[in-house]
C-alpha cells in the first residue's frame, strides 16, 4: 500500500480524492491497491521531504527494514522481516534500478532523480528468484514525455552536493534522452585519537546516467538503452572500541592506518516492450561491472589489500497478459556472474591468494491471477531454478607454514518456489489478502576464502512465508491504513563459523520470524499530515548448533534483526502563500530496539532513536528550498560490530548533519 506517498488530486466536499498509483513490482502494470502482497511505495517527492538520499536511508520510510552498512559501502546488507544474511556476497534482499539487478557491492548507492521506490516484503522467489529471500527493492527513475531540466545544490559543511538531470526531446512524440548526474562529499565526523586528526572518515561519490528512449506516442513498441557510471572514494571503514563510541573516536595506533576504498561501477542495459492484443512481450538485458580496490588495516603496522572484481550479465524475457478474467506474467531468466578477489600476503603466515567464483543461473517462472468474481482473486505462481557454481582458488605457502592451498570445485543446485495468494475486496475501501510463498538463497562457494575448508560448497537456504493482511482507506479517504501479520520458517541457515579471519560458511539449523507490520497515513486537516509505520516481531534460531564448536544458539536472536522499529513523520503546512509558495514544517522520529551483530548475541547495539526536522519551501515555478537537520541529538550508534577477545568493536552511523538544499526545475 502506498502510505505517505499519495498525491491529493482534488476534494469533493469532505471526500479526499487521491491520484491512482500504478507500480511494476509484479513485473506488469498494476494499481497498488490491487497487488495482493505486502508492498510499500514511496514517491520521489516524499523521499526529498524526508531527506532520503541513499538506498541505506530507505530504512527510515519502510517498515521492518534494517540497512545499516556493515563496515563499508560494499558491505551494505538489507534485513527485511528479520531475514538477514551474514554473507555480504549472498544477500537476502534484491535491489533493482529500472529493472536491472544490482550486484551486492553496489547496494549502497545514491538515489538520483527517482520517481518512486517500491518495497516488496517477504520471499518473492516466484517472480524474482534467488536472493529475493526477504524481499525486493525496486528503484524507478524519472522518465518524461516533455523537455525538463533541474539543478540542485546542497549547501552544507557536512555533506555538500550538486545534482542535475532532466529529459530532452530529440524527436517530438518519439525519441527522448533522460539524463542525471550527482556528486556528494562527506566531510567526516570521526576523530583519530592517535594522530589528533579530525573528521578522518571522508568520502566522495559521483554518479552519472543517460538513457536513450524510443517511445512513440500511442505506439505498440518502445525501447531504451541506458548507461550509468559511479565512482566512490571512501575512508569510512573505521572500527571504534565500545568505550569510544559516544565520543566518535578511532585509534589508528591500535587498529592501524585509515582505510581506503575505491568503487567503480559501470552499468549498461537495454529494454524493449511489444504490445499486441492483451499481451505485452518484454526483454531486459543488462551488464554490470563493480571494480573495487580496498586497502585496510587490522592492527597497528598491518596493511592488507583485497580488491574485488564482480561482473554480472543477465537476460530476462517475459510475457504479460491482462484480461477481465485472467492476468499474469510468464518468463525466462539467465544470469552469469564472474567474481574475482585476490588477497595480499599476511607475513609471516601465508602468501598472496587468488579466488574466482563463477555462477550461472537459469529459471522459468510464471504467475497467474484468476479474477473469480469482481471481488475475489486467486493467484498462483511457480519458479523453477537451476544454479551451477564453480570455484578456482590458490594461495602460495610463502612462509612454509602449511597454510597454502590450490583447489577447484563445482556444485549444482535446483529449486522450486511456489506461491498462492487469495484476495477479497470486502468493500470499495477495504481489501483482505493472504499469501503462502517460498523463497531461497542459493548455495555456492565462499567468496572470502581462508583455507582448504572453503573447497566445500554450502547448500541453499530456504524459507516458507505465511502472511495475511488488510489494506483500507477510511475517514472519507483521509486515512490510509494497512496491517500484515507474518510467520516465516527458514531452514539450512547459511552461517559463518570458525575464528575471526578464518571463517567459512556452513549450513546450520533453522530459524523462525514472526511479527506484525503496520502502516498509516492520516491527512488530519488540509495542513496537517501524519505518516508512520511500525514493525513488531521476533526472529530467533530454533535449532542451531555451531558445527565447529558444538555450541548451541537455540533461542538466540538472528543478527541484524531488531524486535521492533518505528518511524513517524509529521508535516504541517505553515503557509500557502509564503513569497508565492508553500511553507511546510516536517519533523520525524526513527526508533529501533536492540540489535545483535552475531549469532552468539555477544556484540550488539542497544535500542536508540534519532530525530530529524526540515522546513520546506516550494513554488509553482519549480523553485524550492529545504532547510534540514538530521540526527538532531547527534546520537552515536553502531551499525555493525564484533568481539575481539574481551573487547567489542563496531562501525558507527552518521552523526548530526545539516544544510540548505536549493532546487530549480525548468
Describe the structure in brief:
It holds the Pfam family Plug. The protein has 666 residues and is mainly beta.
What does this structure look like?
This protein has 666 residues and is mostly beta strands. The chain has one domain: Maltoporin, Chain A (Beta Barrel), CATH 2.40.170.20. Helices cover 2% and strands 58% of the residues. It has a 22-stranded antiparallel barrel. The protein has a five-stranded mixed beta sheet with strand order 5-10-11-8-9. The protein has a three-stranded antiparallel beta sheet with strand order 18-42-41, with no helix packed on it. A hairpin with a 3-residue loop joins strand 23 (308-322) and strand 24. The longest helix has 6 residues, at 44-49. The protein starts with 7 loop residues before the first strand and ends with a strand. It is a multi-pass membrane protein. Residues 34-136 form the TonB-dependent receptor plug domain. It holds the Pfam family Plug. This is TonB-dependent receptor. It comes from Aquamicrobium segne.
What are the low-pLDDT stretches, counting only 5+ consecutive residues below 50?
1-18
- Give me the Rg, rounded: 25 Å
Strand content: over 45%
Q: In CATH, what is the homologous superfamily?
A: TonB-dependent receptor, beta-barrel domain
Distance between the termini: 32 Å
Main location: membrane
Organism: Aquamicrobium segne
Domain TonB-dependent receptor-like beta-barrel: 200-632
Family: Belongs to the TonB-dependent receptor family.
Amino acid at each position: 500500500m502506498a502510505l505517505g506517498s499519495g498525491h491529493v488530486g482534488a476534494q469533493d466536499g469532505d471526500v479526499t480524492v487521491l491520484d491512482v498509483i500504478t507500480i511494476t513490482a509484479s513485473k506488469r502494470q498494476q494499481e497498488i491497491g490491487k497487488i495482493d502482497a505486502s508492498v510499500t511505495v514511496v514517491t520521489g517527492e516524499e523521499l526529498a521531504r524526508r531527506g532520503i538520499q541513499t538506498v541505506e536511508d530507505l530504512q527510515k520510510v519502510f517498515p521492518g527494514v534494517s540497512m545499516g552498512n556493515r563496515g563499508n559501502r560494499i558491505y551494505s546488507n538489507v534485513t527485511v522481516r528479520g531475514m538477514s544474511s551474514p554473507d555480504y556476497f549472498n544477500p537476502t534482499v534484491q535491489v533493482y534500478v529500472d529493472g536491472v539487478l544490482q550486484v551486492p557491492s553496489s547496494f549502497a548507492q545514491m538515489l538520483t532523480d527517482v520517481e518512486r521506490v517500491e518495497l516488496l516484503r517477504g520471499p518473492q522467489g516466484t517472480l524474482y528468484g534467488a536472493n529475493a529471500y526477504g524481499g525486493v527493492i525496486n528503484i524507478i527513475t524519472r522518465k518524461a514525455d516533455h523537455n525538463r531540466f533541474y539543478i540542485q545544490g546542497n549547501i552544507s559543511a557536512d555533506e555538500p552536493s550538486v545534482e542535475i538531470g532532466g529529459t530532452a526531446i530529440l524527436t517530438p512524440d518519439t525519441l527522448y534522452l533522460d539524463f542525471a548526474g550527482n556528486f556528494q562529499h562527506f566531510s567526516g565526523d570521526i576523530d583519530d585519537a592517535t594522530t589528533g586528526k579530525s573528521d578522518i572518515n571522508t568520502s566522495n561519490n559521483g554518479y552519472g546516467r543517460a538513457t536513450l528512449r524510443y517511445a512513440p506516442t500511442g505506439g505498440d513498441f518502445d525501447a531504451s538503452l541506458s548507461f550509468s557510471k559511479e565512482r566512490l572514494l571512501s575512508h569510512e571503514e573505521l572500527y571504534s572500541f565500545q568505550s569510544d563510541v559516544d565520543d566518535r573516536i578511532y585509534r589508528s595506533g591500535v587498529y592501524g592506518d585509515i582505510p581506503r576504498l575505491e568503487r567503480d561501477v559501470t552499468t549498461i542495459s537495454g529494454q524493449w516492450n511489444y504490445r499486441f492484443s492483451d499481451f505485452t512481450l518484454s526483454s531486459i538485458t543488462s551488464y554490470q561491472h563493480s571494480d573495487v580496490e580496498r586497502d585496510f588495516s587490522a592492527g597497528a603496522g598491518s596493511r592488507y589489500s583485497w580488491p574485488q572484481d564482480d561482473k554480472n550479465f543477465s537476460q530476462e524475457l517475459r510475457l504479460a497478459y491482462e484480461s477481465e478474467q485472467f492476468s499474469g506474467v510468464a518468463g525466462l531468466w539467465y544470469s552469469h556472474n564472474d567474481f574475482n578477489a585476490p588477497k595480499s600476503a599476511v607475513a609471516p603466515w601465508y602468501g598472496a591468494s587468488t579466488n574466482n567464483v563463477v555462477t550461472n543461473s537459469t529459471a522459468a517462472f510464471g504467475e497467474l491471477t484468476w479474477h473469480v468474481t469482481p471481488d475475489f482473486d486467486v493467484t498462483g505462481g511457480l519458479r523453477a531454478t537451476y544454479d551451477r557454481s564453480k570455484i578456482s582458488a590458490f594461495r602460495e605457502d610463502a612462509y612454509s607454514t602449511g597454510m597454502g592451498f590450490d583447489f577447484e570445485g563445482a556444485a549444482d543446485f535446483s529449486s522450486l518456489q511456489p506461491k498462492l495468494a487469495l484476495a477479497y475486496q470486502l468493500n470499495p475501501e477495504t481489501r483482505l489478502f493472504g499469501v503462502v510463498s517460498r523463497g531461497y538463497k542459493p548455495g555456492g562457494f565462499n567468496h572470502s576464502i581462508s583455507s582448504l575448508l572453503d573447497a566445500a560448497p554450502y547448500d541453499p537456504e530456504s524459507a516458507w512465508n505465511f502472511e495475511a493482511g488488510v489494506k483500507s482507506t477510511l475517514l472519507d479517504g483521509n486515512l490510509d491504513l494497512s496491517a500484515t501479520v507474518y510467520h516465516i520458517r527458514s531452514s539450512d541457515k547459511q552461517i559463518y563459523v570458525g575464528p575471526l579471519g578464518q571463517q567459512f560458511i556452513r549450513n546450520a539449523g533453522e530459524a523462525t520470524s514472526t511479527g506484525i507490520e503496520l502502516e498509516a497515513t492520516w491527512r488530519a486537516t488540509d495542513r496537517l499530515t501524519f505518516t508512520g509505520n511500525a514493525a513488531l516481531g521476533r526472529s530467533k534460531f530454533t535449532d542451531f548448533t555451531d558445527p565447529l564448536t558444538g555450541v548451541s544458539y537455540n533461542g538466540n536472536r538472528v543478527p541484524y534483526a531488531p524486535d521492533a522499529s518505528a518511524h513517524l513523520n509529521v508535516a504541517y503546512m505553515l503557509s500557502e502563500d509564503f513569497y508565492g509558495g508553500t511553507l511546510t514544517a516536517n519533523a520525524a522520529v526513527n526508533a529501533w530496539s536492540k540489535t545483535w551483530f552475531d549469532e552468539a548475541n555477544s556484540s550488539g547495539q542497544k535500542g536508540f532513536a534519532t530525530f530529524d526536522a526540515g522546513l520546506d519551501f516550494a513554488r509553482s515555478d519549480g523553485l524550492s528550498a529545504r532547510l534540514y537537520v538530521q540526527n538532531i541529538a547527534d546520537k552515536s550508534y553502531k551499525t555493525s560490530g564484533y568481539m575481539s577477545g574481551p573487547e567489542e568493536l563496531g562501525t558507527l552511523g552518521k552523526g548530526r548533519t545539516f544544510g540548505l538544499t536549493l532546487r530549480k526545475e525548468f
